[in-house]
């Protein structure tokens, strides 16, 4: 069974590739690279969440506070990874900062759109 997180990851991939191609056609290579990078950063956060979800399903924790701790830890990990990747993209990698941020935000919008594509069965 496919989860909404899987649909979100798929939508992020499609959105990033389409936006990257459009960026290349309309503005050139620099915009395309920045677009793909911003989308990849959004996807990285989603993939980290999927990884944590799979690990937590395999491990049964006896206490509720341990689940809460894993939730906070996962959130912090994703936040830090995304921050570091965005800083790298806009700093040492010399990508177009505005494009990186806009494409990252577009990738995050997949979290809003993906659940809307779910068909509910009765």
SS-derived structural category:
mainly alpha
What is Rg? 16 Å
Distance between the termini: 16 Å
Which segments are poorly predicted (pLDDT under 50) over 5 or more consecutive residues? none
Q: What is the H/E string?
A: HHHH
Keyword list:
122 residues, mainly alpha
Describe what you observe in this structure.
There is one protein chain. The radius of gyration is 16 Å and the shape is flat. It has one domain (4-114). The chain contains 4 helices and no strands. Helix 2 packs across helix 4 (97-116). It is an all-alpha fold and 122 residues long.
What is the fold's blueprint, element by element?
Elements: H1 4-27, H2 29-58, H3 64-90, H4 97-116
Helix pairs in contact: 1-2, 1-4, 2-3, 2-4
Q: Summary?
A:
The protein is mainly α.
């Amino acid at each position: 069974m496919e989860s909404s997180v899987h649909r979100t990851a798929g939508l992020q991939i499609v959105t990033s590739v389409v936006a990257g191609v459009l960026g290349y056609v309309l503005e050139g290579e620099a915009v395309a690279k920045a677009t793909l990078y911003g989308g990849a950063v959004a996807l990285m956060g989603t993939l980290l969440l999927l990884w944590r979800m799979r690990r937590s399903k395999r491990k049964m924790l006896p206490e509720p506070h341990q689940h809460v701790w894993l939730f906070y830890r996962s959130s912090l990990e994703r936040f830090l990874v995304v921050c570091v990747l965005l800083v790298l993209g806009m700093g040492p990698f010399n990508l177009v900062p505005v494009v990186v941020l806009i494409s990252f935000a577009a990738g995050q919008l997949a979290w809003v759109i993906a659940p809307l594509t779910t068909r509910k069965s009765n």
